[in-house]
Design goal:
Strand content: 25-35%
Structural class: alpha+beta
Shape: rod-shaped
Number of domains: 3
Largest sheet: 8 strands, antiparallel, barrel
CATH topology of the largest domain: Porin
Distance between the termini: 122 Å
Mean pLDDT: 87
Low-confidence stretches: 1-23
Radius of gyration: 58 Å
Strand order of the largest sheet: 1-2-3-4-5-6-7-8
């Protein structure tokens, strides 16, 4: 009885130590069995002797091989004698196969068997009642979960001394597998858990799948939204082939070019970034057309005369029509200068200038350039300077008549572009002239 108490306490301590102390993948197994003994020698009473308990503790080493120890108790009836039975062994166990429902194994070992008549004798295993024992046999485990399994085992125990009987020993009981660390308490040992600090699922090696889309959270770009593998766990709500996180318009089917959005006005700017989705406009003006107050086709930011209807060629400013310019040049052909002179001579010349002033007053939009020319008399540089002075003489006269100075500009072309023959006096007189053209900005 003392012996039973000692080993019961010892196994309890071992259980607590190994349950909390090991760090591998449940390598330890603690088993509790019912113990059945059959004597097999001649001159013994044949029959089954039910007893218990039997306890074993084993540890997996590698490749299906385990090492362990076991202790068992019972009562054996041999004719008119009742014997207290105790065994203590070390063993090796080898798994023949490892399936989820059925795991056969071989077991062999060496230990001590005690058949006691119930009289207290000195020592835990008195030598007069104990025999060294070899044993071997076959067992089956039936897994119920990662931690628990049922076990059936039969061994033949051969005693090599005279203080006992060769016998069969049968175990039927429950195994508890333990020892692996599981920090997140998800039932997957840390050794096999790819997410050891986050509770997960066994089918995903211990990693969670929060949204249940079969894509584990650490590989899921949208771990809280049910998605598809095509989009790495995200949805494509509008079905445009762009996952919602990358889609600026997740509820409206758009194009990749516009990040999942549409471009209603076709100006190359997606609608969410376009302040005028129904009118084409440049990106510089946030997709809206540039304002054009004077409606001359030149936007205000480029229009030098935003309040006056002008021409594109003149940057939005008005200019005199070709017809007006033609009339001005008809007048200009009647303005003559003496040789080597800038003087405006003659009553007819002054009348022509008065007519030019009247024409400009009647057409207040637009400005003119007065071009001065000379004949070929004298050096070319002199003639160039003289042509400018002739144009300036006309400009000053018109200003004197009341034409605004900002409507007038001068240019000199010297003896270039002659209208008459410079070898003749009449031709040279024609070449001493002024012409007009529209002034442009």
């Amino acid at each position: 009885m003392r012996f039973f108490k000692f080993y019961f306490v010892s196994f309890n301590l071992l259980f607590q130590i190994f349950l909390w102390g090991q760090t591998s993948d449940r390598p330890w197994s603690l088993s509790a069995y019912s113990n059945i003994i059959n004597l097999v020698e001649d001159n013994t009473e044949k029959g089954s002797n039910f007893g218990g308990p039997a306890l074993s503790l084993s540890r997996s080493i590698a490749g299906g091989l385990s090492i362990g120890s076991q202790i068992s108790f019972g009562k054996v009836y041999n004719f008119n004698t009742t014997l207290d039975y105790t065994s203590l062994d070390g063993f090796l166990k080898f798994n023949i196969a490892n399936s989820k429902s059925f795991q056969p194994y071989l077991i062999s070992g060496y230990g001590f068997s005690l058949f006691s008549e119930g009289q207290d004798k000195p020592g835990f295993f008195p030598s007069t009642e104990t025999s060294r024992t070899y044993f071997g046999g076959l067992g089956f485990q039936f897994p119920m979960s990662d931690h628990f399994s049922l076990s059936v085992q039969s061994t033949y125990r051969q005693m090599n001394e005279n203080d006992g009987f060769d016998h069969l020993q049968h175990f039927l009981g429950l195994n508890y597998n333990f020892g692996g660390s599981d920090r997140d308490k998800d039932g997957v040992p840390d050794k096999k858990d790819e997410c050891p600090d986050t509770p997960g699922l066994k089918e995903y090696k211990g990693c969670p799948d929060t949204d249940g889309d079969t894509i584990i959270d650490k590989e899921d770009k949208c771990p809280e939204v049910f998605g598809s593998p095509e989009f790495k766990g995200c949805k494509d709500s509008d079905g445009d082939g762009i996952p919602d996180p990358d889609d600026l318009c997740p509820e409206i089917a758009g194009s990749t070019e516009f990040e999942g959005c549409t471009d209603t006005d076709g100006d190359g700017i997606p609608d969410p970034k376009d302040e005028c989705i129904s009118e084409k406009g440049p990106i510089e003006n946030e997709g809206c057309p540039w304002p054009d107050k004077d409606q001359d086709g030149v936007p205000d930011h480029e229009d030098l005369c935003p309040d006056d209807n002008g021409t594109l060629e003149n940057k939005g400013c008005p200019e005199l029509s070709q017809e007006i310019v033609k009339t001005l040049n008809e007048y200009g052909s009647k303005i003559f200068f003496p040789a080597n002179s800038t003087q405006l001579i003659g009553k007819k010349t002054r009348e022509v200038l008065d007519q030019i002033k009247t024409l400009l007053d009647e057409n207040p939009n637009g400005a003119i350039v007065i071009e001065g020319y000379s004949s070929s008399d004298g050096p070319e540089t002199y003639n160039q300077a003289l042509s400018i002075k002739r144009a300036e003489a006309v400009l000053q006269y018109l200003i004197g008549l009341g034409v605004p100075a900002d409507r007038l500009e001068v240019e000199g072309y010297g003896e270039s572009n002659p209208l008459g023959d410079n070898s003749e006096a009449e031709g040279r007189a024609i070449n001493r002239r002024v012409q007009f053209k529209p002034k442009r900005n």
